Amino acid sequence: MADVLVSKVLEELISIVARESEIEQEVRLVVGVKNEVQMLTTKFQFIKAVLVDAENRQVKDDAIKLWMQKLKNISYDMDDVLDEWTTAIQKSQIMGDERVSAENKRKVRCLICFSCFRCREVGVRRDIAVKIKDFNARLDIIVDQQRAFNFVSFQKETKQVERFTTTSFIDVAEVKGRDQEQKAIVEKLLTGSSQTPSLHIISIVGMGGIGKTTLAKLVYNDDEVKTHFETRIWVCVSDPFDEIKIAKAILESLTNEAPNLHELQTILQNIRKSLEGKKFLLILDDVWEENSEKWVQLKNCLKFGSPGSRILVTTRKEIVASAIGCIDIHKKGQLSAEDSWFLFSQIAFLGWSSGEREPLEDIGKKIVSRCKGLPLTVKTLGSLLVTKKSKSEWQTIMDSEVWELENAEIDIFPHLWLSYNDLSPPLRQCFSYCAIFPKDHLMEKQKLIELWMAHGYIKETTKRDMERIGEEYFQNLASRSFFQDINMVDDFYDISYTLLAGKGSLPGYFCDAKKLRGLIAQFEGGFVATAVLSSFFNELTCLRSLDLSNCDIEEIPPTISQLIHLRQLDLSSNDHLKSLPETLCELYNLQTLDVYDCYNLAKLPDGVGKLVNLRHLHIPGIGPILMSKEIRKLSCLRTLEWVDVFDDRKAFSLGDLESLNLLQGLLMLSGLGNVDNMDEAKKAQLKKKKGINRMQLAFNEREGEGRICHDEELLEVLEPHTNLETLGIRGYEGIVFPDWITSLINLKRVQLRGFKNCEKLPPLGKLPFLEILELEEMERLKKLGVEFFGIETSSQQEISSSVTVFPKLTTIKLGSLKELEEWDDGMNKNGEENVTNFTILPCLRSLSIWHCPKLKLEALPDYLLQKIYQFQGCLTKEERREKAKQILHL
Q1: CA separation, residue 54 to residues 151, 156, 222, 661 (Å)
Q2: What CA–CA distance (Å, rounded) separates 305 from 280?
Q3: Three-class SS state of 369
Q4: Is it the case that residue 120 has pLDDT exceeding 60?
Q5: pLDDT digits (tens, 9 = 90+) for 839-878
Q6: pTM of the entire predicted model
Q7: Which residues, listed in sequence order, are joined to residue 547 by a DSSP beta bridge?
Q8: Radius of gyration of the CA atoms of the chain, in A
């Protein structure tokens, strides 16, 4: 991790001298500092050369570990200063552009304002120069200590990780050695209901990585268990223990709704009502709480279930099992040598030939023997070695000093450290960052990548942007088993927590709060006062990321401008937030602004165009928010999910999309009925935005003459790039469709809803990769005919040969099509194909039809009846009986 920090500082130092000659005098560093910068550069280069040896030796040498920490601290401080200098340059350029723009509008120049600005900038560069001289003195001490350790200088080999089309994860059902344990647990759950107490609790106890959760999942999904219990509930308890959170999770599982309750007594009463008289199975996974008093209220509530109900607990400690009142304790055993080798072989030799595998089997078995029968460690090392095909690489793992650690907290630690240490420095830093999240936290991939970007862990190249590199980093870590089902594996959390402790990146460590770079704030029990936030902003000026989501914030104080280093700001789910201060636009480094689910936010600041580095703008999909035309200046923007077109010349329009050609992912355009100027709509040039792969178009309900022609013309000019994979159109009042729809050869999903005038659909059957088709509320659609299927006919009876209609379509949903009465796919009356080469819907798995009263059963061919998943609101009782007979016959 230190390697990444030092490399980043080095790059910034080297670029300073080059930029000095290019920038205006106002922000140049003071005379003499250039030599100081060159001295710093030389010292950092000297340190970087020995970092690989230092990283390896710090595992067993506390003195080296302390030296590494000091190096990290000075690197972070240096990064802050260099970032401050770069920000001063950006601010100068932006304000300079504003001065030029203002002078073009008015001939008079405000000399007083300019002089004040210049004085402030001179003060900034003088402060930076003083700090750089101080860093040289601090770094001299680091270099002197470095010589005492006699580090060896060598470069760590970096290789591109091989990419596999198949995953290295093994399904739990394929792992040997669990059948007997599963049967034993199931037998305990299903028997003894009349002799056992009202609350029968069973516990699976074992060390980290031994497979407790996996065994619990096997039991939970066992067919006998599913049949025996009326209700099954799974709750991840984790640490710290939160009684209200656990109770809410139980209630949500019972009702399938997230409870909007805050008092424990009320939640427990609702749980009691839901469980009363029912035989249930409750799994409490990953339990740590040893205080029996904290379990009393929840246990009393659970006693109202039917006799035979069971609770199954997984924990690492027997004292926890005793505290919760377990009757049976099942100690999870380790894998046998045979089963460990089987699991390891399935992962480590995935895709290998026998010639590649045989020379490494002996050393592989020695490595597996050191895993002590722990499934997670076997899996971890298998994932680590799958890309290493030389005996020397396997021998290096076998001979590593980390196996000899005496102070490891758990036996699994050496295996995790080996896998972690094999990562490239950027990947190590990205993974270690995940320690800021609570245990068992569900991480959203895009947000995680945005956070990595904010902290400078991802370096953009000329050919690949940061988002793409971040995606590759995530997949790389997932392929090595560092992420599991997007949740952090608990033991990997343990190691990353150890690596980050003391760095100052964790919200709980406020001993040196001013150095914090990332903060996830959680305020419960009411709104957050503006004064509290203002204090935060004045103190935590080094922040790169700040998460204030779901904090009931009513106002953001102007002092947010103090956070000049901030890259990521999450204000989402603050319902009371109505406005943002203009000073927010002074955060020139901001890359991500998230105000999603801020439904009362009226508009963005007028100066949002100053956020020249903004890449992701997450705004609410519904609500009164008025988007400024200034957004068109954000040429770096990648994410702008929702654009609501207002009947306001000052608001953001379709034409303002013209310069935003880097947009990626989802783009939703609503209020399209408000578009009056087609020339303005053409400027959007959606066809050039090849990064957009999902698009939703919503024509509003505004009535008016010429609406049919308006919608047809507008839809024609909104042609997207052929990379589009999902297309949704709603409220369209045109009669015909543009030809470009069938040119979207990569479409996988099409949703058409709320069409008033359309009687015929485009030939969607020609789309080669379409998988899901949804048609709803099309008022005049009477027939799905050969035109819709894309079948070309030379006459009314003869169909051209070699036709495959909807070759990849798996799901069809037809809803509220009140006039639909015919399905004409070109087959004859006997349901047979007119030509031998004619194939229709070869991959169809599910057909759902609801509220289509004129669509009769006899109108559907046999191959559709076999795939019907839902058929509601369409038939009379007699017709439903006939339908049932036909389906049974088939």
Answers
A1: 7, 12, 50, 45
A2: 7
A3: helix
A4: no
A5: 888 899 888 988 898 887 777 888 888 777 667 666 555 6
A6: 0.71
A7: 520, 570
A8: 32
Task: Please report where in the chains the tokens 């936030």 appear, as a residue.
Answer: 533
Regarding beta strands 616-618 and 639-640, do their DSSP bridges make them parallel or antiparallel, or are they unpaired?
parallel
Structure tokens at 336: 């046998």
Residue 496 has pLDDT above 50, yes or no: no
Hey, what's the torsion of the CAs at 452, 458, 460, 463, to 10 degrees? -100
DSSP for residue 599: T
pLDDT bucket at 512, cuts 50 / 70 / 90: low
Beta strands 772-778 and 749-755, pairing class: parallel
Distance, CA of 608 to CA of 614 (rounded, Å): 9
Q: Which of 83-92, 139-148, 268-277, 701-710 has the lowest mean pLDDT?
A: 701-710
CA pair distance 814, 820, nearest whole angstrom: 10
| Bridge partner list, 812 | 773, 847
Query: What pLDDT shows up at residue 171?
Result: 45
d(CA 657, CA 684): 5
Start-to-end CA span in the chain (Å)? 63
Asked whether residue 622 carries a pLDDT value surpassing 70, the answer given is: no
**pLDDT tens-digit map of 207-249:** 666 778 888 888 898 888 888 898 999 988 877 788 888 888 8
Confidence class of residue 716 from pLDDT cuts 50, 70 and 90?
very high
Phi, psi (rounded to 5 degrees) for 147: -60, -30
H or E element: which one contains 778? strand 772-778
How many angstroms separate the Cα of 679 from the Cα of each of 674, 690, 713, 779? Answer: 14, 21, 11, 31
> In which element (H, E) is residue 657 found?
none
Q: How far apart are CA 776 and CA 755, in angstroms?
A: 8
Report helix angle 391-398 to 361-369, nearest 10: 20
Backbone angles phi, psi at 407, to 5 degrees: -105, 20
- Give me 13's structure tokens: 């130092």
Coil, strand, or helix at residue 497? Answer: helix
Exposure string over 378-408, b if 16+ CB within 10 A, otherwise e = bbbbbbbbbbbeeeebbeebeeeebeeeeee
Task: Output the DSSP codes for 799-823.
Answer: B-SSEEESTT--EEEEES-TT--EE
Question: 685: which 2 tokens?
Answer: 């040039």
CA-based angle 269:275:279, to the nearest 5? 160
